[in-house]
Design brief:
RNA polymerase II cis-regulatory region sequence-specific DNA binding; SRF-like; transcription; DNA-binding; elongated; transcription regulation
Length: about 200
């Protein structure tokens, strides 16, 4: 069963926060012990709590001081190379989420334009006048490139047409694009719509 993703935010409920702290601290120290034993590395942990006057250290005060001293004697460039505080971590998470959002929006737009393009081909008319003309033209150009690449690859493989996961075969795509090329109305209509949109 997939574990529910934890929201990284402050737990306002005090009893729940204390229980989470106790559980997470135990897991943290256990993981530190595991990585130190399994990989033969020097590691230490210092955990502060609002409810305890002194921090909890692992594996011992002496070992913590020894590891920290070794770290402090490293050149600054070496020390900073892989350091990561919570602010930097959250910024990386936010940037990654933004990139995923942009990628998903682009994929959704392409699927929308793909569907619109084939509706136009099947009906013989522009079915939506409120389209992004530049995006629509780009999708048409990309489709032509994809078909040409598939045709070249297919010819090099002996002319075998294969469709995977219910996708269109090369012959089906070629028929659609040939229809597009033979009927200049599609591109003319797209540019016509664009010109009308540009005249206020």
């Amino acid at each position: 069963m997939t574990r529910k993703k934890v929201n990284l935010e402050y737990i306002t409920n005090e009893s729940k926060r204390k229980a989470t702290y106790k559980k997470r601290k135990s897991c943290l120290l256990k993981k530190a012990n595991e990585i130190s034993t399994l990989c033969g590395i020097q590691a230490c942990a210092i955990v502060y709590s609002h409810d305890e006057p002194n921090p909890e250290v692992w594996p011992s005060h002496f070992e913590v001081q020894r590891v920290l001293h070794k770290f402090e004697t490293l050149p600054k460039l070496e020390k900073d190379k892989k350091m990561l505080d919570q602010e930097t971590f959250l910024k990386k998470r936010i940037n990654k989420a933004r990139e995923q959002l942009i990628k998903q929006r682009n994929e959704n737009m392409k699927k929308k334009m793909d569907l619109l393009m084939f509706k136009c081909l099947s009906t013989g008319t522009i079915v939506d006048n409120n389209i992004d003309v530049n995006c629509f033209s780009w999708v048409i150009d990309e489709t032509l490139k994809e078909v040409e690449c598939k045709r070249t690859r297919d010819q090099s493989q002996g002319g075998i047409h294969v469709a995977e996961n219910g996708s269109r075969t090369l012959s089906e795509e070629k028929e659609l694009v040939d229809a597009m090329l033979k009927q200049d109305w599609l591109m003319d209509s797209v540019h016509s719509v664009g010109n009308e949109m540009l005249h206020f």
